[in-house]
Specification:
heterodimer, A: Rossmann fold, 3 domains, 6-stranded parallel beta sheet, 23 helices, 36% helix, B: 177 residues, alpha+beta, Alpha-Beta Plaits, 2 domains, 5-stranded antiparallel beta sheet, 4-stranded antiparallel beta sheet, 38% strand
Chain lengths: 569, 177
Amino acid sequence: MAPKTTTGGVKVIQCLEREGVEVIYGYSGGAAMPIFDALIDSKIKLVLVRHEQGATHMADGYARATGKPGVVLVTSGPGATNCVTGLLTALMDSVPMIVLTGQTISPMLGKDAFQEADVTGITYPVVKHSYLVKNANDIPRIMKEAWHIATTGRPGPVLIDLPKDITQGPCTADFVDTVRLPGYKVPGRGNPEALKKAAGLLMKSKKPVLYVGHGALISNAGRAIMQFAEKLGAPIVNTLLGKGACPEDSPIHLGMLGMHGTAYANKAIQNCDLIMAIGARWDDRITGKVSEFCKDAAKIHVDIDIAEFNKIIRPDVCIAGDAKLVIEDLIPLVGKLDTAEWWKDLNGWRKQYPLKYAKKGGLRAEYVLDRLDQVGGRDCIITTDVGQHQMWAAQFCRTTKHRHWISSGGAGTMGFGFPSAIGASMATGKPSWAIVGDGGFQMTLCELATAFLQKVPVKILVINNHYLGMIRQWQELFFDNRLMGSDLEGNPDFVKLAAAYGVPGKNVTRAGDVDKVLKWAMAQTGPCLVNAEVVKEDNVFPMIPAGAGYAQMLTERPKVKMEKPTGST
Amino acid sequence: MPTTPLHTISLLVRNKPGVLVRISLVFSRRGYNIESLVVSPGFAGSSNLDGYEAEPGEFSRMTITCSGDPQTLEQIIKQLEKLIDVVHAIDHTGQAVIESEIALLKIQAAMNSRTEILQVAENFKAKVVDYGVESLILRVAGESDKIDAFVGLLKPYGIVELVRSGKILMARGLGTT
């Protein structure tokens, strides 16, 4: 039977329905109108955001909380360019996302039509793949391919640019169920030789560390890694994005490593004789000075993206494959290691260098986050923005559940925390805490309207120090405390601001009130805001200055003047 | 002029809009320059696609020469391979290959120097493809080094224009290009 003629816009929406899409985050506009029109007759829910960047971060949060792609629908020109930050954020952190952009009619392409932008051109460097649709009958194939590319291998964002004459015009093509992509290969199981070689290295190790990243979480490898670590007797550390792959409250877990990781995780890195990266990419926040990083340790790298091999570090063994399958295949090849001495060291460091903060001198951000962890934060999804609060949250809010930690790692996108919490809560129905700074929150706070309308259980926790705190910290430590562009003078009253959107809020200024206010927020069924007025000039420690080695880790405010860091940002 | 040795990378790609931009971005993002680039319709042979049945016009061939340090080039090759529309990218440096390039040279050729020019041309098996009153156009084919030498010999006579095709190559034997 010949397929029924419909419009391109309707076909786009029908293809999304076939993939099980329940919600689209979008902002309408002229060139996207035929697609928005098609939504009227669809079961898919449209969440009308207040700025396109917010839509991308909501879709991102949706995707990170579920593993399913988030879908964004925006118009041409500025609507599409406002998505660029969200695309970068998703690409850097391997998040599956489909971004549909309206475009001017095809005969006007390249002729500076109203709200025209070369959107595929602008976005090439920030997408996993992209399409400019020139024929409505290509829509089913492109939608299927886009879905496949976004969700398989190393996930990432796919953009589809849809000229208005294509979405308004007829489409007679039938749905497509298979993809033909001869240039696209997805590794599955690890190469048996490489597995054997890795097992051989592991069995020789007395001081191993398993370094677990976002790839492990994406491949759902947590349980296999725990079993693997227990069988070996090896400790686990995780990256910022690896939080939640394995429970951080496990006795074999040392928390986060790297620039602001726990001192005991970093001591383990500094002293190990073998480090095995599982779905992690030796990022500069992890390695510090590469030439000094685990200089004498054997290195094993498991990744689904072979372009990550030998990019930063030249490992002894690289295993291309899905983290879960690789670890499952490795478990029978290894046995118990003699790590008793190693654990004496590790537990010694844990005692000697615990995470700590001053208990006096005003309300500390660390205290607020420590309490949040104690009063039920672990049962909620936690999203963060970028900066000091993000690092403190990573340290003090231990993640024990899969996909309960959502943070912009690679791109370090301010403004990410709050909208991503909206997406995460909508996707799962779970309450979420958006831990944000007073800087980042102001970048996307227009989504208070979206949170209010959707009645999502998002609890915004503003860690308010009236500074771009991390910048101020660097200026204090490395630039002779010469402050420039880091004082957020002129902050609004966040509680009143939330109230203007119909969102209840409370201020907290004293440590004694923290539990009460957090519990109040826990009890709210809709969105709410807590503004924590914290000590203004607090610093995040431990800290390995950018470009320095692990030996230069600071665990407290240095007494001597510091050199300017040489590493990237 | 490049200071490090030139590498030649051959690619089999899907003939899609934007594929060239995606490929050139892999180079430009790292501050690398493409020295020569040849793009042409591709024939996807049986050895390249594991039995995939190609449609007519579905693939293109690219041959890129560039210079750079080996580590960055390794990363460039991997990033090229990662592109959805790239079927494969191979750095042929150090491999046994057949390589070839064509050049057209327009030479100011007064009557008294013609004989000498034509002698040089004959030795290089170059063909006269345009015979004018004041000029000659010569077509020469072969390895890029040979063309360099040919151009060098003709320089003193006055080269008005020079257009080179850029290098193409193929792996010897049953090797994959």
